[in-house]
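Retro notes (design track)

What went well: tokenization of the new backbones is finally stable.
What didn't: we kept losing track of which sequence belonged to which structure.
Fix going forward: every design gets posted as structure first, then sequence, in one message. First example under the new rule, 107 residues:
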């Protein structure tokens, strides 16, 4: 399962303004900083992979296939993990429900 964990021990410097459109700043595959909320999250390499795919404009409907190919998962496991991941992103306000709906393909 893919999970984001808030890392309270890290405090970013908020003096710099982001000029990039993205609200996420990656620190390797271990941490991501949300430039809007000012929070750091400790992430897994799998989470980093999925977040980077979203940052690159990949549609949410394509994430299970990419996850399945990269990590040799079954289609059911990949779909389940991506659904949990997207729910976590929405709950943490890192992915808007509108964007989630607009990137889903009709079934």
């Amino acid at each position: 399962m893919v999970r984001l964990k808030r890392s309270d021990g890290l405090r970013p410097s908020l003096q710099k303004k982001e000029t990039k459109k993205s609200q996420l700043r990656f620190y390797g595959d271990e941490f991501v900083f949300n430039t809007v909320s000012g929070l750091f999250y400790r992430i897994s390499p799998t989470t980093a992979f999925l977040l980077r795919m979203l940052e690159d404009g990949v549609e949410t409907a394509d994430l299970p296939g990419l996850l399945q190919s990269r990590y040799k998962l079954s289609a059911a496991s990949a779909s389940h993990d991506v659904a949990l991941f997207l729910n976590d992103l929405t709950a943490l306000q890192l992915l808007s429900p509108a964007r989630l709906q607009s990137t889903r393909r009709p079934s």
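Added context from the reviewer: The chain has one domain: 5-100.
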